[in-house]
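hiii, so i know i said id send this last week but things got crazy w the move. better late than never?? heres the sequnce for the chain we talked about at the cafe, plus the structure i predicted for it. fair warning i was half asleep when i ran it
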Amino acid sequence: MAIAIRKPEEIKALASANRIVAQTLSLLREHAKPGISLLELDKIAEDFIRSQGARPSFKGLYGFPGAICTSVNEVIIHGIPNGYQLKEGDILGVDIGTEYKGWFGDGAATFGIGAVTQNDEALMACSRDALLYAIDSIRVDMRFKELSHLIEQFILKRGMVPLRGFCGHGIGRKPHEEPEIPNYLEGGNPKQGPKIREGMVFCIEPMICQKSGEAKILSDKWAVVSHDGLNGSHHDHTVAIVNGRAEILSKE
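okay and structure toks below
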């Protein structure tokens, strides 16, 4: 496994790509109101990203048709923008990728449309808080498996479960690089595998289910839901290891 170590100037370039991600997320939060369609949000995002001299890196990636992923309610990740109009009480996960001057950015957030249920508030808080807890816990020389284990334990303590079969990842000159970073421990021993090193850049993205972590892909071949059919939540930041700690590059 070859995990890239980035020079300071490369981390600055990645920060520029991720700044556009963060700005796009903030813009979409403003526009995501009852009555707007997912396709309208997709256009707002694409127009803004291109106005910044970047391109939406998800568009065409592995054949994905949208500029962004828009995942509503039970769809946890990879929702395709369509004509669905948001309504009060929905929860919307927005996942954004950019390419700027050959470097990639990636970030996601799930938020409510108007007033949502207490259960959905707890669900969204779980993925958001798990992400921030993971970022705060990172130290140079800890293993990626230790990070996965910490995320899993945090989620389980909140009474939720991680989505299985999908993971965080490295990022740089490509949108997906080594390593893979599941939100759960694989193999049973967190003291195995590669260590986190100064200069690494990667995406941490807790994906939360309520009862079953088993994934199901819908008929469009993209949207991922849980076998329990209940609402899910997803948050994602790109981080760089600087001075021994994780620095968020995609912060809104």
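btw The chain has a mean pLDDT of 97. thought thatd interest u
miss u guys!!
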